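Action item from last week, closing it out:
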Amino acid sequence: MDLELARELSVEADSKIVLLVMDGLGGLPHPETGRTELEAAYTPNLDRLARESMCGLTVPVAPGITPGSGPGHLALFGYDPVRFQVGRGVLEALGIDFDLQPGDVAARGNFCTVDDRGIVTDRRAGRIDSERCARLVAKLQGIQVDGVQVLVEPVREHRFLVVFRGQGLSDRVADTDPQREGVPPLPATATAPEGERTAGLVARFVEEAARRLRDEAPANMLLLRGFAVRPHWPTVQEVFRLRAAAVAYYPMYRGLGKLVGMHPLPSGPRLEDAVASVREHWERYDYFFVHYKATDTAGEDGDFDRKVEAIEAADRAIPALVELDPDVLIVTGDHSTPAVMSGHSWHPVPFMMRARWARADECDAFNEVALQRGILGTFPAVDVMPLALAHARRLKKYGA
């Protein structure tokens, strides 16, 4: 739905909406069993919820397009991910409450492992812990390049933030992260003429950082991606009339919520932690975005069994979420991350919505095969927000 139309039709109400995003939820069959992670998992609570819901599969961006986490979430929030684009650097900055100033160019960093030939052997440096990340970041702080200030801050595990601050900078710089192992990091290059100077500054920073990290295996190199300046978009309060909260443990997803005007709430890594935070703040907000990361992490690591375990762990927390009795409860993902592919994919994403004013359909389980019987079919993820608003009685009639 066009945001201007949403602004015209949205109304305030006493109803509650909960959006649970199980990151990277969708999967593909394991070659030995023919079952996806959701089919293999024991999920009595998710299956029971499916039998009370409208079900289907969503397409985050467009058929065949593999989405990043940013576009996948923005679509669920009602923002067309093709029109509303933002680099990951801004999301990490917002997620750790970094004071991003006008003109700052932010990038997301990964510590990584390279071999003696400079080939990337692990894009995440073995997922080093946050304490080691902070020590490594301290080694990079204070790097100066041609009078431009370079600010480096730890985020979580292998992730960190780099911000370039100075006059005349541009975010038109390509990623140095090749997004796969077995190749060297990419050179910092401009994607437009106005990015030439900034790309040169980034290259000099990377060169000095590599010198400082060379004896720090497994985190002996870094990769940068998502160069961006902060955009200013209409908020969910302005457009959808929602008092919205983001309950996310990982900073990037906290940043996504903040970018569209959601208030960040504290959470831990488990879904139980997030549900407890929702319960504590239930009366203050009418829309809760709840993020669960473990499913995506296991999928990216190619660990099918661990992704199954993450799904089962989430299933055990579902009754506490259902007990809150929101007017609309949605369970879905931002994209698919099949463990057999060890990465994001373009496959449609499992979706179900239980609501007071919705008819349950013939879907009897929460997995990719059963959801194909759902009444919603396969539909654009950007339609999730208007569906939620309508079933929460938050959209007035259109036209005469």
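Closing note: The chain has two domains: 3-86+232-391, 99-228.
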